[in-house]
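Quick one:
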Amino acid sequence: MKVFILVCILFVVSCGNSTNQEDNEFAGYWYSAFADVYLDINRKGHVRLRECSLYEGYSVNESASGQIINDNLKFGEKGFEQDFIVSFDGTSLQIASVSDVENGEPTLFTKQTSIPEKCENDVVEITYYSPKQVQENDLIEFTVDFEYRLSSAPNAIIEAGFTSSDSGSFVLTNEEFEVSSSGIGSGFFTPTTTATAYGSNKTFSLHLIMYVPPTGTAISFSPIASDKVDIRVILADPSNNKLNQESSKSFRSSNILGFTKFGV
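Output:
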């Protein structure tokens, strides 16, 4: 009888702990004015990223996801993943990249009761690109069409870039499109680069960023909007091509949680 009672007590305690673990303390909607993104965190700590779009409000980035366990956030997309430290100071949710936790400043998110249906902030979206499949190590000229909305500044610059490392970072091509006034507009690029697959999923991506030109002695800047599509690469070693099959789909995303800065 004592053994039976002990088993019952352990079962109740175990069930109680399991329930508590499902109620993540950070659950809810959180907004970053710096990155202009919402984090949609459910009770189990699963995180979805919502970004400003041209015509669909703050839409879910289907290629990006993460999970918070205790005070750690693991967030990423398609083979590229980052670790973040999460804390709450009573007012704001603070998220800092593990690699920058000592020298960098955390991005602040404030709690929201809901996510707006409309978004009128800065955005750039790739509307067409070709080719969608390339051969590894070939020099390729791409055609890229895009639309944008500039609302936070009187002018800006849009540039294209391509994946340059296994971490998912990318290098700009220095081909600039000048946005001379605020509002909605469109443009195109014809950048050239050598196709190279990176990361565990052998991904090669085309990036667009929009930023306000630095002034004075400034040598770095943060994008005010960005977009990305993944391009399928036929690998030089045929035995590795299975790793790259999913790259034929295109996905949009900003720099993960808006932490990246670029030098000029």
